[in-house]
Please model this.
Amino acid sequence: MKKTRPRQSLATDVIHAGQVPDPTTGAIMPPIYATSTYVQPALGKFTGYDYARTINPTRSALERNIAALEGGTRAFAFASGMAGITTIMALLAAGDHVVVSHNVYGGTYRLFEQVLRNLGLDFTWVDTSDLRNIRTAIRGSTRMLYIETPTNPILTLTDIRGASLIARHHRLILVVDNTFMTPVFQRPMELGADIVVHSTTKYLNGHSDSLGGAVVVRGQEHADRLAFIQNSIGAVMSPFEAWLVLRGIKTLVLRMERHDRSGRKLADYLAGHRKVRRVYYPGLPGNPQRALARRQMSGYGGMISFDLVGYARAKRFLDRLRLCALAESLGGVETLISHPATMTHSSVPEPERARLGITPGLVRLSVGIENVEDLITDLERGLAAI
Model:
């Protein structure tokens, strides 16, 4: 019987999986292969490399690494997270129906409602935290269930295992956006997901210096189809961006542990502050989904949202901050803070934002890896202004 190598821990895989020293020089980091084409040794002799849109060694190293981290058959690296999501949706055809978590990243909402709906796809937005809503929304034309968990920015959870059982029963493709948790804290494929999507711009890269996306698939059929679609569309990550993400992933476990530890402290601080009306964070003792979080996640992460009651109060708070940077994006080593209603989710119609709880006073915090007491001091400075 052939002996199989025991599975390494994630802390080891983030550094080594999918990568080997360069055979020519021994370079421990995969080189940046800045080439658009490859010389063929002779007519009819194929080396495995032909054109950079189709394959690039640096990008391939990153794809092998991310596939190993998520436990998938294959991964694909894209020019952005939205490029990855667009390619996933190209698995469908006009007339197909998708059930979607009603609180997702604003760019996903914009893509689905203002681009893909015009091309013949149909979407139903439901609160997927209640599995009954998923069952009710499924039609004969439904082909996909697309969930974000935790959601952006309200941090609502969906039971991935329960959703996967529904998807399997109805022969749906289950897609899970795992950007917020990363494979360090959540492994959707082990819970039944067919496809996992990431914005690598966020935690995987972790340094706010790279734009990209990744899609990981479980089955070979989806792997083959996505490879064809990605090559046809050309939505690929550049070699330099792939190198940056590979570099960032090497410290992913360490960074996520720090994000999580500081996130818990800041959530507790905000929850106890009299000027904060409500805090959204799965790890708070009073969160009704905390039991689900403990079942399907091994950490709570560094994303926190909180309501300061009104735009004017939120603006005074944000204007006084000095350490927390007012900026789009999340998942960097530096703490980033944003106002979803006017920034990340401005493309979502106001009535829909109100229904979801994305109020004018809502603030989203991406906790960095700075000293947590310094972060509390900065938040106190802002809260003192209201």
Observations:
- The chain has two domains: 10-249, 252-384.
- The first strand starts at residue 74 and ends at 78.
- The chain has 14 helices and twelve strands.
- The domain at 10-249 is CATH 3.40.640.10 (Aspartate Aminotransferase; domain 2).
